[in-house]
Amino acid sequence: MTATPIKFSTHANLRHRLVLATLTGTPLHITQIRSNSLTPGLTSSEFSLLRLLDSVTNGSFFEISVTGTTFLYRPGLITGNNGKPIRHTLPETCNRGVTYYLEVLALLAPFSKSSFSVTLDGGVITAATDEDMGVDTFRTAFLPLFGKFEIMRGIELRILKRSAGPHGAGEVQFVHGHQVRLPKTLHLQTPGRVKKIRGVAYAVGVSAGNNARMIEAARGVLNRFIPDVYVFSDVAKPQIVPLDYGKEGAAERAGGVMKGRAGGKTKKVGVGFGMSLVAETGTGCVYAADATARPAEPAEDVGKRVAWMLLEEIAMGGCVGRTGAMAVLSMMTMSTEGDVGRVVMGRDIIDEGFVSRLRDMKMIFGGAEVGMREATGGKDGDVVISVVGKGVGNVGRKLA
Amino acid sequence: AREQWLQSRTGSGRIQDLTRYLYDDSISPAEAISKWKGNTVTKDEEDEEDEDDDDFFKKADNQDEEDNIFIADRTLPRYDLEKLEQKWSEDDALEALRRKFITANLLDEK
User: Fold this and answer.
1) What is the ipTM of this complex?
2) Where does chain A show beta strands of DSSP type E?
């Protein structure tokens, strides 16, 4: 394993690059991570991601520079800790939603040597943040995507403790028991029409009335299209944590001891509410939208906002929504060598982030270009994206 | 209303035009997209992009802002709420979207 590492600069697409590198076993060398920022180097959330990668693989090697602006990563074998449960504690200062980590796990788990069981605790934000979807969207819209590759057994996300941002203290358990040699070649060309809308409204530490208000506002927007709108309402308690929770360095000083921290003074964290909506078409394609209330934002506004976002996603069309597009393309590249998979996506999905990720894929897989053409008979201007499988598959299973 | 709707959601360029720039590493992703979309890019936006040409992502001094969609490594798309509200409070846009739902009457359309 002395392959020359692929060089990237800046922390752009960091997760996507790490996932692809781990799947293909390609070493990465990333430089200039926030080199001009006032807080240079990797953030604590990103460090935590590297640690998580380390604990689900065997033989991974990280070499991080003192400032954290440069690191070298040589991925090991994805073993999932040989099927033994893993508990991974996120830093209290983690500002990314827990799906930031879950998405990585969901892409790695199918190619693991043994099953995954990862419990994430610590600074877990289960609600949607500005950047990351909430756990409900992950469970109802992201995980089912893998069903299209016939990866569907024994996959579960248990939400043990809910928590909203900015400092979370929730807990989730991700179980993945369906490991494959190669994912099935995907042909997904009929988006279909939306037949039902489901959702979850969550309120943590605030009145359950917020849920009802969000749901009513969302239904007000969506019911004119379809009567089959059902939104589940989940009311959870906030987490009680020491008073200095989430302060820089507080966790280190406490050294893992939560009891009696900050002189026994406590506060509530993770208070907030939000909603996740998922629209499902007759052919099983899903579109999702997700948002959490901003400070002092009324519940009605949140409900309407999420409903509008959902309409926007539906308007984009295609068989895969924006949240899952990259995951689907990565999985397609992993499939049987030489087989061409096709997926129809909305034209508006293609933006600069999309292009740069496709370029990353080409770099890491060593020449995996995708083909694009207009969908035939597509009056919507949808695009057929065809991906040739590289047959990388599951390295651990090859040996076994 | 349908024509309007189609107009609004399809970029002007054909997808074949994009494939030409897609893997051309001499063109930044942002440029590739703006070239593909053709004239939808206004003049001064283009000027800005030309400046950024060689440092690939953005100027160094505003790296803290992370407003760039692919720098921030985000999953959720970014929405312009005001536009969203404007768009979806119009009856036309809403009715145009109806064909994406099973409640649409397909016979009327063709």
Assistant:
1) 0.78
2) 6-9, 28-31, 57-58, 61-64, 71-74, 77-78, 86-90, 116-124, 155-161, 170-176, 187-188, 194-204, 229-236, 239-242, 266-269, 272-281, 286-292, 340-345, 370-374, 383-388
- Residues A137/A232, Cβ–Cβ less than 8 Å: no
pLDDT in tens, B35-47: 777 654 444 444 4
Q: Under CATH, domain A194-235+243-252+265-316 is a member of which superfamily?
A: RNA 3'-terminal phosphate cyclase, insert domain (3.30.360.20)
The two tokens of residue A145 are 């995507």
Give the angle subtended at the CA of A287 by the CAs of A285 and A290, to the nearest 5°. Answer: 150
DSSP bridge partners of A230: A198
**Token digits for A302?**
């949140």
- Residue A132 to chain B, least CA–CA distance (Å): 5
Q: Three-state DSSP class for A299?
A: helix
Partner residue facing B70 (CB), from A13, A221, A226: A13
Contact A225 B9 (CB under 8 A): no
**Cβ distance of B64 and A37 shorter than 8 Å:** yes
Going from the C-alpha of A326 to that of each of A11, A126, A276, A343, the distances in angstroms are 17, 22, 20, 12
Q: Which of residues 292-351 of A touch B (CB under 8 A)?
A: 304-305, 308-309, 311-312, 314-317, 322-323, 346-348, 350-351
Q: What is the pLDDT of residues B62-104, one digit of tens each?
A: 444 444 444 667 788 888 888 988 998 888 888 888 888 988 7
Q: Which of A13, A102, A96 is nearest to A52 (CA)?
A: A102
Its sign, for the CA torsion A267, A163, A160, A199, is positive
Helix axes A14-24, A44-56, angle to 10 degrees: 10
Least confident stretch, A127-141, A197-211, A308-322, B49-63: B49-63
C-alpha closest to that of A60 among A72, A45, A75: A75
List, edge to edge, every strand of the sheet that includes A229-236: A229-236, A194-204, A272-281, A286-292
- Which chain A residue is nearest to residue B18, measuring alpha carbons? A372
Could you tell me the residue ranges of all domains in chain B? 14-77
| Chain B CB contacts of A103 below 8 Å | 75
